[in-house]
Amino acid sequence: MHSDWLEDKFRFDFEANAAWTDFLSNVIDDPKPEIVRIISHILNVHHLWIRRIKDMPVESGDWDTFEPRHFSRLNYQNFQETIDLLSENGEDRIITYINSDNEDMEKSMYDILYHILQHSAHHRGQVALLCSKEGYENRPEVNYISWSDTKNV
């Protein structure tokens, strides 16, 4: 039901994250630690939720920090695992998991996937603001409307 819609949004999310991770890995020589921490958090939380959906152990904590050189690989891994989940067409199924406060929870897979998108967008906004304050030039300009226009040309 929602798979096509979600796949499109996760493609944008992947490309938006890739624009920022490429910028911080390849354009900025030594990005500020807070910026690296937030990008790492985006990637970690996406990973954490995918693992909760799949009922698998996580490989990193939500605030663990990675070297920028690892960002691209982690972003791609998250994207591929998400697309694989969507191919199963089970986005309406209920996922039971234990949250960060060690409480038993239930949510639909769709709601969890939508949360990942919102979480990433929120923190990319923080990264954009921090990069602007640092005076980093040639920052990525990513927004969904512009991105969707280019894919329909």
Automatic annotation (TrEMBL):
Keywords, ordered alphabetically: Metal-binding
A Pfam family hit: DinB
SUPFAM superfamilies: DinB/YfiT-like putative metalloenzymes
Family of the protein in this entry: Belongs to the DinB family.
PANTHER family hit by this protein: DAMAGE-INDUCIBLE PROTEIN DINB, SLR1116 PROTEIN
Name used for this protein in its record: Damage-inducible protein DinB
Lineage, uppermost ranks: Bacteria, Pseudomonadati, Bacteroidota, Flavobacteriia, Flavobacteriales
